[in-house]
Amino acid sequence: MLTLEDFGTVFLLTSFVGALGFASPALAFVLPPRPSERFSELYVLGPNRMAEDYPFNVKGGEAYKVYLGIGNHMGSSAYYVLYVKLRNQTEPLPNSTTGNPSPLPALYEFRVLLGDGDVWEAPVSFSFRGLSSYGNGCRVETLGLNGLNLHVGKSASWDSENSGHYLQLFWELWICDPESGGFTFHNRFVGIWLNMTG
What we know:
nine-stranded antiparallel sheet; single chain; mainly beta; 14% helix
């Protein structure tokens, strides 16, 4: 059985909870919002702008297409550089653990300025020329990228486990550091493997 003092405690507690319920909309204007996670997204889509049907078995002289995209969720405008690189299976990718980019040279770059919440997407067409086979290897002399011919001189050894000569076309995302004015690796990269035996 509750005493008069217990009823008083229950009444005060109920009144306090009710007051908080009525005051919560007003408190939302006074209290600062929780900071949201700030990040950038980087993606590559196939020729139909879907995450499927990526080019894989490529032939010299034929053109292929993918779509690249960057999404800015950093809380403010951001200036990005997207570097295009090409590697064989023995050359290094960026290291996500240490946050270091691949030491391979950039073949091409896209520069993109995005407001917070904005998304940039662009088609990328590519082809390979000067494709030759020798012994256990394959060599590509030229990468055609959006109408430009870029000398790559890249070789790939035969991969007996996967039955092919593989190169990876990949893109690294860098972001402008407002303090230094320079670009730093943003620890984001995407790529597609290409079988050059076609």
